[in-house]
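Chapter summary example: a protein plus NAP.
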Amino acid sequence: MTVTETALLEGVPDRLFIGGEWVESTSGRAIEVRDPATGLVLKTVADASVADGARALDAAVAAAPSWAATPARERGEILRRAFDLLQERREEFALLMTLEMGKPLAESRGEVTYGGEFLRWFGEEAVRIAGHYGPNPEGTGTMVVSHRPVGPCYLITPWNFPLAMATRKIAPAIAAGCTSVVKPAELTPLTTLLFVQLLADAGLPPGVVNVITTSTAGDVSEPIIADPRLRKLSFTGSTPVGVSLLRQAAGGVLRTSMELGGNAPFVVFDDADLDKAVEGALLAKFRNVGEACTAANRFIVHESVAEEFAERVTAAVSEFVVGRGTDDGVRIGPLINDEAVAKAGALVDDAVARGATVRTGGAALEGDGTFFAPTVLTGVARGSDILREEIFGPVLAISTFADEAEAVAMANDTQYGLVSYVFTRDLARGQRMIDALDTGMMGLGVGVISNAAAPFGGVKQSGIGREGGALGIHEYLETKYTLIAPAS
Ligand code: NAP
C-alpha cells in the first residue's frame, strides 16, 4: 500500500454512526474489508449486532419529528454543502472506492461526480415539494393535496457503486424530511462511513442519518423491517434478496423502493453506425468491470453486421489493460470476490459447451486478486445460462437476429426490465423500439444513460419505484388529501 492509501484508510471511521456519534458495536465482532486486487485487509470495521440495529432505528425515530419540521431550505442547504465538500474531497472518495471495490480510479472519479449530483439535485428539489389546491369538480369544497415525509427509512445498498447507491437514497430522504438507518454492503462499507462523516461536517443534525455495518445483514435487518416505527424500506441489490425483503415489508405494509437486478439487451441493427455501436458497447459492457445493474448483458446483433461488430470489439477488448484500479492505464480492475470470478467462468463455460466461440479472454487470470480476463463470445446459443443470468463481469456475449420482430422477441425474453440499448440510424425504427421494449430505461444510440436528473428504475423483476429525477423525492413522501368545506 502507498503512503497516501495508508493515510486515507487511517482517516476512515471504523465504528457505527448512531445518533450523531461514532459508537462501538455490541457484537464483539469485526468486519475485515479487503482490497479485491490484492486480497489484503484494508481496514477492520465494527460488525453491528441486532441490538445495534435497534439502537440505530431508535435514533432515527427520535430525530424524525424535528427533522420533518426543519425548513426545506435548511435541508437543501445542508445537501448543497455536502455537495461542495465532496467536490473538495473527490480524490479521497475516488481512491477509497477503488481500494475497496476495485474499479479503475478514472471510473471512481466518475462515480464521485455522478453520486455527488444527487446531493446537488435533491438539495434543489427540497424546496420544490409542491402540492395542489383547487375547487372540487362539484363545486362543493376545496381540495388540498399536500406532501409530507414518509417517516423513518431503512436504506440498504450494494457493493458495486459504494457512493452513488448511497447518495441516490440518502439525498432524497434528507430532502424530503425523512430520517434513516443506512446499511452498506459488507464488502464495501468504508465509502459510506466516510460519507456520513462528511454529512455531519456539512451540518446534518444527529440522528438524521445513522449507519450500521454488519456481517449478518439478514439477522440485523429483519427486526428493523418488522418494527412498526419504520415506514419505508429502500433497497438496491439482487432480485432474490429484494423478493425476500418485499415479503418482510408486507408485514408492516411498508412503502418500498426496489432497485434490483438487470439483464440489459444491447441491440445493433444493420443500419447502425458501427463506430458508435462499438463505442457504446465497450462502455455499456466494461464500465465498472461489468459489475453494474445497467451493464449490457446480451448483445443482439443483426446477422449481416455481427462479424464486423465482433471483430471490432474483440480488437478493442484485447488491448484492455487489466490490473489494480490505482495503476495508470488500467481499464479492467478485479472482480469483487472469488464467487464473482467463479460465476463468470461458469457462464462462459456453459456458453462454450453450447457452441459459443471465445474470441478473446475466456477465463480467470492467475495470480493475486480476483481478476477475470475481458472476454468476447460469439455465436451464443439460445438457452445459454449467460443470456438468462446477470453476468456481473467483463464478458461480452454476442447472439444474432434476422429481423426486427426477432430482435424485439429476443430483447424482451427475460424476467428483468431495467435498461435496454438500441443502435439504429432509422428514427422510425428507434421509436418502434421505445414502444416495443419492456424496460424502465433505454439508451437510443448511447451506452451510458445514468443521470441524477433522470428517473432511474426498472419494470418486471428489476424493481419498483424510481430514484433520481423529479420522481425521486416522492419515494420519500406521503400524499395527503384534505377537502375543505365551502365557507358558509
Ligand atoms: P445483494 O447480495 O442483494 O446485496 C445487496 C445489499 O443487501 C447488501 O447490503 C447486502 O448486505 C444486503 N443483504 C443481503 N441479504 C440481505 C438480507 N437477507 N436482509 C437484508 N439485507 C440483505 O446484491 P449485491 O451483490 O450487493 O449487488 C449486486 C446486485 O445489485 C445485482 O443484482 C445488481 O443488478 C443489483 N443492483 C441494482 C441496481 C439498480 O439500481 N437496479 C444498482 C446496483 C446494483 P451484505 O453485503 O452484508 O450481504
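Key point: Residues 156-161, 165, 183, 185-187, 217-218, 221, 236-238, 241, 244-245, 259-262, 293, 390, 418, 458, 463 surround NAP (CB under 6 Å).
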